[in-house]
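Before a colleague's protein record goes any further, I have to sign it off. What it holds is a sequence and that sequence's fold in token form. Would you go through it and say whether the fold makes sense for this chain? The record follows directly below this note.
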Amino acid sequence: MKTCICGCGIAIQALTSQGLPAKYAIGHAPGGVQSRFKPGQIPWNKGRPSEIRQPYAPPTKVGYRIDLGRSFRSSWEANYARYLLYTKNMFIYEPKAYLLTLPDKTQHYYRPDFIVNESYFVEIKGIIRSDLTLAILDAATRQLPKPLRILFAKDYYALEKEVGKSIQNWEFRNDKIPPLPDRICIGCGATYKPTNPRRTYCSDKCAGRYRWRNGKTPEERTKEAAARRAKNGGEWFSHESKLKISASQYARHQCRRSE
């Protein structure tokens, strides 16, 4: 607890709801600047347990992890996967989604972050920012077929302090995701930096141009089709081609032409 610096003597919390150092009581900001909450308005997280009022949210570094062989939605989830491998636990990342019923009778799909040893779920949740998220997690703890363990910010930082320096490739706060090695585009031959290990083209435009018909462009394919039709006397299919397709397929093709 601390005192409002305007001199009124009102006791205030040390941190705001956003995790920043508090200075003024509600409505006591100088210069006519209003605080976020109006006088008499109660913040949504007032009186809630301390674990959902953590000042730090998990950094979201979405990307492919070379050492883990797949993409993760954040560095916290990637680090927890490394921790499970380090402790020789079997896990599945983002298993199937479950349909939950909330207290107001609405339904929401929820997909846990991990299922460990097929015995319990794990959710990486640094901070809870809304009542809806809190209601979904509360429903998940009661309706999922297996127990749910929620890893809040203080739990994650305690885990990082304990084993972070012992696990190889652990991602700390200011670390960047190691990039994939450069590749050569199979279409144009240019060197590019891939964002996905399955990507083989340098751009979507290049992929659309070279993906089909042995690297022929759409213009080249259109010219070939026009020449083939002229050779067949104005027909799309030659007599030999008509014999290879069934009568029903040819009839549907004729109907489309007549339309």
